Each structure stands twice: as structure tokens, then as C-alpha cells.
Amino acid sequence: MLMSAPDSCCSDCVKQTVQSHGVKGLYRGLSSLLYGSIPKSAVRFGVFEFLSNRAKDESGRLDSTKGLLCGLGAGVLEAVLVVCPMETVKVKFIHDQTSANPKYKGFFHGVGEIVRSEGRGTYQGLTATVLKQGSNQAIRFFVMTSLKNWYKGDDSNKNINPFVTGVFGATAGAASVFGNTPLDVIKTRMQGLEAHKYKNTVDCALKILRNEGLTAFYKGTIPRLGRVCLDVAIVFIIYEEVVKALNVVWKTD
Question: C-alpha distances in angstroms, 95 versus 38, 199, 203, 234?
Fold first, then answer.
């Protein structure tokens, strides 16, 4: 069976990375990703719980539109409080570690150097990040809320097993990838080592379109699809199971 161009490019990228840096090369930037994931998830789901608990009707049901708005609010806040500074650090750190002469000795040394040299530059691409995270979570929570309401029907207390939650989460993740990959591309460019080339988010988008064409906004869609679907499925399973556990000792809905 012949591989499609995106699949071939993805496989070639993995092969070259392993050849140049070993299997460890596939995990470059992992520390910054881990340090950012915990506060990011805490803000995202904490804000969503806070907003959704106030948006539910008398029967405890959250409709899809309100799910979208609650997700949007959660995404915007996580972008401002956590994602933008952490993504800037992560992108610069990964680029540095894959360069011929890395200058950062480790995560904390890298953070110190980036903050010292960039200052407010850690908020480069804030507009693109807010747009990306806001739309990301709006899409995911809209899809997730819609699927949960469909599954439960008229019984808002119907239990959803982890496997079904995982399938719903993967579906929500796929929808978000196709919905906002262009914003992710712009955000990454705005936070990369060559961010100085762009005056602002709009300028970045126009230069990508003019110099690389429309398809450039969907670069990396296939590998991102696989990663995000698995990621979102796991995260939603953990979230739903944690909420169930908390409901036993502390009513959260």
C-alpha cells in the first residue's frame, strides 16, 4: 500500500529525528510540556466547572451552546494565564535543543534565559494564542457536551463509561484539529525563534499566505490529528472520572 504524502513526510520526520538525535530526540522539550500541562489543565477544567455549574438548567443539563461558551471562557483564561508564556518557552526551547549549538542547559536555565532576554516577549503571539485556545476549547467542549447530551437522552444522571468518554473525547479532539490548525500554525510562528519577522498576528497570517500559500496553514495536520485525538481522549477520561470521584465526597454538580 502506498503512503500518502502527509504520512510519508511524518514518517520521514520521525526517521530523521531518530537518526540524528536517537530515540531521545522524539522527547525533546518534554520537560517544558510537562511543566505547562498541569497548570494548563487545572485552569481549563477549573474554569469550565465553575462556569458550567452556573449555566446548567434545573435538571442539571448543560446545553451545547452554553457548553461552547463555557469552553470559550476556559480557553481564553488558560491562554492568558498559562499557555502563552509556557508555549513561548516550549517553542524556543525545542528550537534551541534541535539547533547545532544549543545554548540552554536545561528547562529552568532555559526559562531564566528566555525571560531575561525576552522580558514581556514571553507573551509574544498572545492574540493568536487566545484565538487558538479559545476556539480550541469552545469546539472541544461543544462537541463533548453535544455527544454527552445525545448519549444520555432524557436521563441527565445516566452514567457514561470511560471507553465511551474516550471515543467522545477523540471525536472532540479531531474536530478541534480541523477547526483551528491555521491558528495553531500562526501561533507557533509568532512564538518561534523567527518571531521578529512578524509585526503582529495579522501580519504573520498574511505573510504565510503570500509566501507559502493556503496549504501552509494546514502543515502538520496529520501528525497533530493522531496526537491530539489520543491526548484529548485521555484528558477527558481523567476529567470525568475525577469529577465522579469528587462527587462522592464533595458535590461538584
Answer: 22, 21, 22, 27
Please, what is the end-to-end C-alpha distance for the chain in angstroms? 50
DSSP 123-144: GTTHHHHHHHHHHHHHHHHHHH
- Structure confidence at residue 4 (pLDDT): 47
Look at residue 49 and give its three-state secondary structure.
Answer: helix
**d(C-alpha 73, C-alpha 78), whole Å:** 9
Instruction: Give dist(CA 114, CA 249) in Å, integer.
Output: 43
Which pLDDT value is given to residue 33? 66
Predicted confidence at residue 49, as pLDDT, reads: 92
For residues 218 and 182, the answer to whether their CB atoms sit within 8 Å is yes
pLDDT mean over 15-19: 73
Question: From CA 197, how far away is CA 87, in angstroms rounded?
Answer: 18
Q: Find cell 508564556 and name the residue.
A: 85
CB-based burial, 39-55: b 16+ in 10 Å, e otherwise: ebeebbbebbbebbeee
- Span 181-223, pLDDT tens digits: 888 888 778 776 667 788 888 888 888 888 888 888 888 788 8
What 3-state DSSP class applies to 12? helix
